[in-house]
Design a protein that fits this description.
Blueprint (H helix, E strand, L loop, with lengths): L2 H4 L13 H4 L4 H32 L7 H30 L1
């Protein structure tokens, strides 16, 4: 996945751009969505760093990268992200009731 695919809110033609005047035309819902996307991406990156540091600590600092370990880290990040998403949906469901 490319950076552009992961971060559409940072693209020049997306909802957020460098011109402050154009950001005034964004609705609160769009702004909230951008913030939520950035928080989700930040969470994913923090998890990735955590799992990479854990792997380095366990391997004694060896720099050899293994595809299985990289895939495992990706899956662990995805699991934690999905857990967070399920928790948010559950809270929204309870709030809606």
């Amino acid at each position: 996945m490319t950076t552009a695919e992961r971060r559409p809110h940072l693209q020049p033609h997306g909802p957020v751009c460098s011109d402050p005047a154009s950001s005034l035309s964004m609705t609160m819902k769009e702004i909230d969505q951008v913030i939520a996307d950035l928080k989700r991406e930040n969470f994913d990156l923090k998890l990735r760093v955590y799992f990479c540091e854990d792997r380095l600590r366990r391997s004694g600092g060896a720099a050899a990268e293994d595809n299985a370990c990289a895939a495992n880290i990706d899956l662990q990040v995805e699991v934690e992200t999905l857990k967070e998403h399920v928790e948010k949906l559950h809270k929204a469901l309870l709030k809606a009731q």
